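Need tokens for this chain, all 296 residues.
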Amino acid sequence: YNTSAFADTSYSWVGFCCDKKMITDADNVSDIYREAAAQVNDCNSFEYTFYRIRADDNYLTSKTIKTYEQVDTTKFLTQTTAYSYSNSIHQQVTDISSTDSKGQSKVVYLRYPADYAATTGFLKSMTDRNMQAVAIESYTKVNNYTVAGRINGFKTGNMGAIVPDYVKTLELSVPSSGFTPSTAPSGSLVVDSRYTTFVTFDSYDSSNNLTKYSPLTTAPVSIIWGYRNLYPIAKIVNSANLNFAFTGFESGTNQGGWSFTGTPVVSPIPKAGAGCYYLPNGSVTKTISSTGNYRL
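Here are the structure tokens for all 296 residues:
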């Protein structure tokens, strides 16, 4: 293993050291040092100096793995992996290259918000929030041919938070020599035309918990959160957000899509959990967005 991706840097006048001068009298009692016996201000009893601070890193830059044959340890396979850090702003790994014993090369490239020249959009919002370690695009080349790629899109959620918006994957029938990495000349991502949306993250609750996502090849999935929006309590497949409800009556604030005015109570009667609802305190209702058959 080898480390240190960036050159050492020395910063002058950033360290500060201060001490206080004391004087011991003949009676072995320590007193504050003063220029004159009658001096009240003891500012001259302090001594200080500045010093430099050197900054370096221990980021992994390369590693070599040897896999030995169990019978004959003189025979082994070698795989060497190198890690590059091409942007000192985010200091994240930007490409991971490896070569196996057959001489086949593989390189994984990664791009982060600070790698784009975006002045608007979610990329600008991410750099403003110093979200430097979140990869926006990654793509893989084998022997200089692109074989895979992924785009992670984001958007603004509740209270200005940045939340996932979508994931796109590169659809290739054969390895490609004409792949174009993403750019953001005007704030919006411009990606290779062969990227296909793999999943979209459609909605979030007030705590920015994901409440619905839509995969490419399966039905949409909705999630109900409970316990003060800390934990998911139900997962619903292939249903619109307004056409389902669930609650264990564990909380009066998370009604899980139902509507009721009474307060749930703790009881030993429920077969699951400790909460229940006393119907004389008010009805439990649900408004649906379309007619059809529903199971209660």
